[in-house]
């Protein structure tokens, strides 16, 4: 029996080695998986099979959903004749806008009104106010939708609005919202909520969906008001129930033509989660008249994308900077491409500031982030550690251009997750976000290069170890 077991283990290990060599997307990631297979007997090949296999290269994965999603993009893409689209002609941001359009099929829209929501209370107060005023439909999509005070509020307001004839649709990630199931979800469905999990963990599809999660946070009310950012439906954003305290996060409320782009993201995901009819008609995509001065372009990416659109968005934004780059992110593990873009900017005389929470919900992520700090500090990048835990995903360029959404600076957001950002070509809104950024950046939380360089050798070892495995995070 033992001999058979070892033979099977040897076959699985050899298969894993062969798969990594033939289908590995990057040498660093391939080396990390090879080390994992060697360092973790028996478990290494299993972990690689679940999380490491590049299933996009295999026919069965393409046929099941990826090709259908690509066909959806090409069939229902926005057209140049769409009202209120605008051309970003400037040399500074024209290429960025074209890059996003080529990758995502979303065009920039002018005439939008943007409200910056700086924390969970502001975000949910605004969302519930919009829901209370809904007349036709309420569409929500979240990575985490978990039981608690907020979920109960949603249940009560859903029940009230459904009784008024308002349609309510909810999609949620089956891993991020793992506890939102059983009696809880049945309770919502009983009152008429059309609720569906994204990529549910089922026996027949587990192996090619487990590692690809829908990380988006989107709400659309009547096709006129949209919300996007990093806030999940969790009481951690409104109550001190976490070891990290109340989680901080940035969210946006958008009114105007760009809401249709945001809604198309929801409609696509809802169609594939529910397999119900497409909601591509005037009721759900109304002709929103200009209501403000902001130009917005929605950015999306996922395992079905032909290119890593969010990573390319961030690199293009960094390359467009002439004066300053401000990045706030809880998981700053960007990989070689983004690190090099930041280094080029800093060495070119551009002021680069990173705002990272001093606390983290992941020890591995924290040490992986710290592994990049020394080389960045050495070339003049300013790194600030805020005392609370901020979950915001923000990048600001020259106080003129801002990106807010769900996309982190890590491999998971760049390659494995379905993400959505709002790119705002508006110096007024960008400066509002910059002011909030600057309030968290002061001398007493600025990392000193000499002090950091002399940190204990044990910490350096943990950083190096975590950094080696960072492509697997």
Offer a concise description of the structure.
The protein has 473 residues and is of the alpha+beta class. Helices cover 43% and strands 17% of the residues.
Structural class label: alpha+beta
CATH fold-level topology of the largest domain: Endonuclease, Chain A
Strand order of the largest sheet: 4-3-2-5-6-7-1-8-14-13-12-9-10-11
Question: pLDDT average, as an integer?
Answer: 86
CATH class category of the largest domain? Alpha Beta
**Cα separation of the termini:** 35 Å
Shape: globular
- Sheet having the most strands: 14 strands, mixed
**Portion of residues in helices?**
40-55%
Number of helices: 17
Unreliable stretches:
58-64
Number of strands: 14
Question: What is the domain total for the residues?
Answer: 3
CATH architecture of the largest domain: 2-Layer Sandwich
Proportion of β residues? 15-25%
Rg, please?
A: 22 Å
The CATH superfamily title of the largest domain? Endonuclease Chain A
Q: Oligomeric form of this entry?
A: single chain
């Amino acid at each position: 029996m033992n001999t058979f077991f070892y033979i099977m283990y040897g076959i699985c290990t050899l298969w894993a080695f062969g798969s990594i060599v033939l289908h590995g997307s990057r040498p660093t990631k391939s080396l990390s998986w090879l080390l994992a297979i060697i360092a973790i007997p028996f478990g290494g090949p299993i972990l690689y099979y679940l999380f490491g296999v590049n299933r996009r290269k295999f026919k069965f994965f393409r046929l099941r959903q990826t090709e259908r999603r690509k066909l959806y993009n090409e069939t229902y893409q926005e057209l140049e004749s769409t009202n209120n689209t605008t051309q970003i002609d400037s040399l500074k941001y024209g290429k960025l806008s074209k890059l996003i359009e080529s990758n995502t099929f979303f065009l920039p829209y002018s005439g939008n009104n943007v409200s910056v929501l700086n924390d969970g209370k502001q975000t949910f107060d605004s969302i519930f106010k919009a829901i209370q005023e809904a007349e036709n439909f309420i569409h929500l999509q979240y990575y985490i939708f978990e039981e608690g005070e907020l979920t109960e509020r949603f249940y009560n307001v859903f029940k009230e609005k459904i009784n008024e004839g308002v349609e309510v649709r909810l999609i949620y990630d089956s891993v991020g919202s793992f506890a939102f199931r059983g009696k809880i979800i049945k309770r919502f469905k009983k009152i008429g909520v059309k609720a569906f999990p994204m990529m549910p963990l089922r026996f027949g599809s587990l192996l090619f969906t487990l590692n690809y999660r829908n990380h988006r946070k989107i709400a659309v009310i009547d096709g006129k008001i949209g919300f996007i950012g990093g806030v999940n439906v969790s009481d951690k954003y409104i109550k001190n129930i976490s070891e990290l305290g109340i989680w901080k996060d940035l969210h946006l409320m958008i009114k105007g033509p760009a809401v249709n782009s945001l809604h198309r993201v929801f409609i696509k995901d809802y169609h594939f989660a529910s397999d119900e009819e497409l909601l591509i008609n005037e009721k759900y995509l109304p002709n929103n008249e200009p209501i403000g001065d902001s130009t917005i372009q929605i950015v999306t990416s996922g395992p079905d994308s032909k290119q890593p659109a969010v990573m390319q968005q961030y690199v293009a934004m960094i390359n467009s900077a002439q004066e300053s780059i401000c990045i706030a992110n809880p998981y700053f593990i960007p990989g070689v491409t983004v690190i090099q873009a930041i280094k080029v900017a800093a060495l070119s005389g551009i002021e680069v500031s990173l705002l990272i929470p001093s606390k983290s919900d992941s020890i591995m992520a924290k040490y992986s982030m710290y592994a990049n700090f020394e080389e960045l500090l050495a070339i003049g990048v300013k790194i600030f550690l805020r005392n609370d835990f901020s979950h915001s995903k923000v990048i600001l360029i020259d106080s003129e251009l801002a990106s807010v959404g769900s996309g982190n600076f890590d491999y998971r957001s760049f390659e494995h997750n379905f993400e959505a950002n709002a790119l705002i070509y508006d110096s007024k809104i960008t400066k509002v976000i910059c002011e909030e950024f600057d309030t968290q950046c002061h001398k007493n939380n600025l990392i000193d290069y000499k002090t950091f360089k002399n940190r204990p050798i044990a910490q350096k070892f943990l950083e190096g170890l975590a950094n080696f495995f960072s492509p697997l995070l």
